Structures are given as structure tokens and as C-alpha cells.
């Protein structure tokens, strides 16, 4: 289960929306597949999270631009920790 938080803001007269991608469960970040500024499509893998001895792909819920990556490989995360912020 992927937890998403949506919010909107005004930038240069345009309404921009953001998706905050949170960790669905506690684990360790194995790999980050994107960097800030990358364009992603819905379903693209953002990072890989190891939890319960399984590798879990954390995928983009929307097509947009990566605005923030808040994790690095090897980092331990808890459920609901913010992994990335996307703008669309």
C-alpha cells in the first residue's frame, strides 16, 4: 500500500500540484533510481525499499517532475517517512 498526500500551490499564476510519496512500511532504502529534476511517468520506479526480507519497488503515483528526494541508499526508514516529493 502506497501512502500519498496531495497538495496544490500557485506558482507564476499556474496551479501546481504535489504528491508526497511516503514509505508504506519500515525498511532500508537499497537504491534510488531518480534524481531531483527528473521527469517521471506514473508507474516509474523511484526507489527500492527492502522490508521483511523482500525488495519493494516504490513507484511514482503520477507523471511529473521529481522536486525532492529525501532518502539515500542504506538509509533506514519508518512507515510514513517521506521518500520523495513530485510536482505535476
Topology:
Elements: E1 3-11, E2 14-22, E3 27-32, E4 39-40, E5 45-51, E6 54-59, E7 64-69, E8 76-77, E9 82-87
Overview of this structure, please?
- It is a single chain.
- The protein is an all-beta fold and 88 residues long.
- Helices cover 0% and strands 60% of the residues.
- It has one domain: OB fold (Dihydrolipoamide Acetyltransferase, E2P), CATH 2.40.50.
- It contains no helices and 9 strands.
- The protein is elongated.
- The two termini are 21 Å apart.
Number of helices: 0
Instruction: Kindly state the number of beta strands.
Output: 9
Q: In CATH terms, what is the architecture?
A: Beta Barrel
Low-confidence sequence ranges: none
User: Could you give me the name of the CATH homologous superfamily?
Assistant: RNA polymerase II/Efflux pump adaptor protein, barrel-sandwich hybrid domain
Helix content: under 10%
- How is the biggest beta sheet arranged? 5 strands, antiparallel
The SSE string, one letter per element, is: EEEEEEEEE
Question: CATH topology, which one?
Answer: OB fold (Dihydrolipoamide Acetyltransferase, E2P)
Quick summary of this structure?
With 88 residues, this protein is mostly beta strands.
Comma- or semicolon-separated keywords:
88 residues; mainly beta; OB fold (Dihydrolipoamide Acetyltransferase, E2P); 5-stranded antiparallel sheet; 4-stranded antiparallel sheet; 9 strands
